[in-house]
Amino acid sequence: MRQEEMVTPGEVLGKATEVKAGKGTYVAKHNGFVYASLTGLLRTVSPPPESPDQRPTVEVTGHKAHGAVPEPGSVVIARITKVMARMASADIMCVGPKSVREKFTGTIRQQDVRATEIDKVDMHLSFRPGDIVRALVLSLGDARAYFLSTAKNELGVVSAESAAGGTMVPISWMEMQCPLTGQIEQRKVAKNES
Amino acid sequence: MEYVSPEGLRLDGRRPVEMRQLRAEIGVVAKADGSAMFEMGNTKVIAAVYGPREVQNRSQQITDQALVRCEYSMANFSTGDRMRKPKGDRRSTEISLVIRQTMEACILTNLMPRSQIDIFVQVLQADGGTRSACINAATLALADAGIPMHDIVTSCSAGYLNSIPLLDLNYVEDSAGGPDVTVGILPTLDKVTLLQMDAKLPTDTFEDVMQLATEGCKAVANYIREVKTSFFCLIVIWDLCYNYC
User: Fold this and answer.
1) Predicted TM-score (pTM) of this structure
2) Facing residue for B148 by CB, picked from A24, A28, A102
3) Mean pLDDT of chain A
4) Most CB within 10 Å of its CB: which of A46, A148, B31, B225?
C-alpha cells in the first residue's frame, strides 16, 4: 500500500495500538501516539498475513540517502591496512552492494581467519597490506574497530597484488599466483560463486 | 521615545502582534549534509549541519547517544559597525550553548550512538531576533540533513514597550532596554524547549508576553512546514525526472 503524503517531524501518524512504528517514526511514551521523525513520504506497509501482530507499519522515507553502516551479519568488502602477529586491520569500503560515505575500521583476529586449525594461523600467510577481502561483520567490536571474520569458504581475499605488481590469480583456497612472474604467494582466498 | 504610535503602529509600520516577513531556503551550502537560510525581516542567518559522523575527539564520545555540537558566529559585516571579534566573545559562546541545548532536546540522539552532529550558524545580517532566526534555520538544516527529530523547533521573541506587548522585536526596539522574551517550542507536542528573558517583568505581564511569543512560534512553524513540504515535493519531482531520462 502506498500513500503519497508528505510529512514533517512531529506530525501524528496514528496510535501505537493501531499502527506499528517503522523507520523514520517514533512512539511517544506519555500518550502512545506514533509521530514522524523525518521529513519525507509517508508509506503504510500492510503486515504479512501469517504474523500474529496485524497492525500495519508506517514508515517515512527521507530524501537524503545516508551512507551504509556495517551491521552484525552483513558481508563487507574491506582493504587490509596492517597485518600483525595476531590480527589484521582493514578499512571497510562497501557494505553489501553499497559503498560507505566515510570509512570504518575493522579487525580480523587470528581466530576468525578460518574455521579449522585456528591456533596455527599465520597472519602474514593469510593477508598482506593492500589486499581486498570479503568479510562478515561479527559484532560492533570495541571503540576502535568492528570485528570481522573470514572463516567461510566464500570469505577471504578477493583481489591481491603480487610483489611484482600484477593482479594475482587464485589457484586454491591457500594460494594465489602472479601472472607476470609465476610466483605463488599464500593467502586465505575466497571461493568464487560459480 | 515612542515605540508604538497613538494609532497603534510601530517604528517600521507593523502592528504590535505582527511578525516580520519570513523567508527560508533549504540546501544553500552544497558541501554540508543539510543547510538552510532563514530570514526574519532584515535578520538573515545561514545554518549548516554536518552529521551524523564519527566523533573527532574520542574522549568526548558518548556510548549510547549522539554528541551535538553547535557554533554561533556573526559575520563582521552583519551589524551596523564592523564587528571586531566574530566569535569567542561571551555573547556568542552563550548563544552557542543555548542553541545546542535547544536542538539537543529535539534530536533523537539515542538512535545514533557514538556519533557527532555539528550545527554551524552564521549571522549574515543582524537586526534583532538573531537567536530565534538561528534556531529556525537550524531546524530546517537538520530536517534537510535527514536527522530524526521529535518535532521541529521554532522560536520567536517578544517584548514589552510603552506598556504594549510587541511581537518579533527588531534591533531598534531591542536596544530600547525593555524586556525581551525569547521562546522556543515544539509546536505539535506543545512543549517549551527555550525560555529566556533579559530585564524584568511583573509576572502577569510576563504571561501575556510569553503567550504572544508562543503564538509567533506557531506561525513560524506553519511557515516552516509549508517550506519543507514544497521543497521536498520539488526534490521528489526532480528525482523522478532524473530517473526517467
Assistant:
1) 0.77
2) A24
3) 88
4) A148
